[in-house]
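Predict structure. Chain length: 425.
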Amino acid sequence: MRPRDLSVIPHAAHGGHRRGTAYVLAVGLALLIGAVATGTLLATRARFAGEADMNDLAKATLLAESGLQYGLRQLNSDVSYASGTIPAATTSNVDLGFGRVRIKIAAGSDDGNAATLTPATITVSAAVGNAVRRYQIAAHPLHTAMGAFELPIAVGGRIGVANGASLKVAGTEGGAAGALTITGSGSVTGTVRITGLGNADADAAMQASLDRPSLLTPDHVTSLRESATTLIVSGGGSISLSGFLLAPTSNPFGNLNQRGLYVLDCAGRNVTISDCRIVGTLLLVNPGASSALSGAVVMEPAIRGYPCLVVDGNITLDASSTRLNESGTNFNPQGVPHPYFGGSVDQDMSDGYAARIYGGVAVTGRFIMQGTGSIAGLSVGGDCGIQGSLTVNRDDWASWSPAPELLAARWRPDPTSLMEVFSGP
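Prediction complete.
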């Protein structure tokens, strides 16, 4: 059928058609504008949503990276990992900045390398909005002992040898210190390696940092304290303890500790310990600035590899007396032979013993030596002042079989093992 000729439509009818056409065009334009506006709105929303997702992804990435660093710090601060092994897998949720990250630390597979046996794997999962990042990295223990006790003496600060005083570093290992000063006729026999950075360039500074042995840390003190039995001492002023025997089977100040680990919280008071025999490890916490060991003191560990004395603070060793005599106290009764390993016991109180420290001494702060004495392993976090005569030698047991509480494994991440994983803790 042929379409109508629109030219013969009456004028009135033609005018009505124009009005209808205008109406249709107006509605169509409105719909078109609405569609365009809707499309623009959806595109804008999608763009903003995309930008938000990208922002969340960046945050999740940063959060996951922070989680890896947190897990590594946990490996190096928790004593349960200090032996260089992972006793059991642990998972924890940690709030870090703008989000929460889930961290799992577990034992990795043995790669057959004796230097990197039983590595750890740190797996983290971080979610921000709709974005999720999961990373995993391996870490290996490179050191398994408190490095200071691998040397006869290790000092974080300065060793100062006064006029007329002497320091003898026995053995071939030598000692280490941040600096060394000798005044007047003072003398040092043996080798002391200087690990201070001074004005060294970046490479030398890095090497000096690597050469510096690890010293006693607050974490070590905390770990020892958790294993120790508290000594009960009355009085609110200064503390003076003398004429006693402290050992796994003897404690005149409280309960026994089978490992001979005892702690005395000085609460800022000065403590003086003199004329006594200690078989075990004595931990002094918060001692006053004038605290000292004086007179004749005989100390040896109850467990090979443990130090005799650990001080979280400053201490002076005044070895003015050279012999500990029994006077009212039997220092070698049944169960506490002298020496403790392979020695003898008796029931009399007529014996005498050479005053000596047969094990290690670790101090977080300043150490001052007065009188004449010897120590098997000295670790000082601050300065070490030699005002008398001191001989130091290495305690091989502390190096070969260190106290678990003093283990200082350094977990290092393996950058080549970093990967993104698709299932996390």
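Summary: Residues 11-77 form the longest helix (67 residues).
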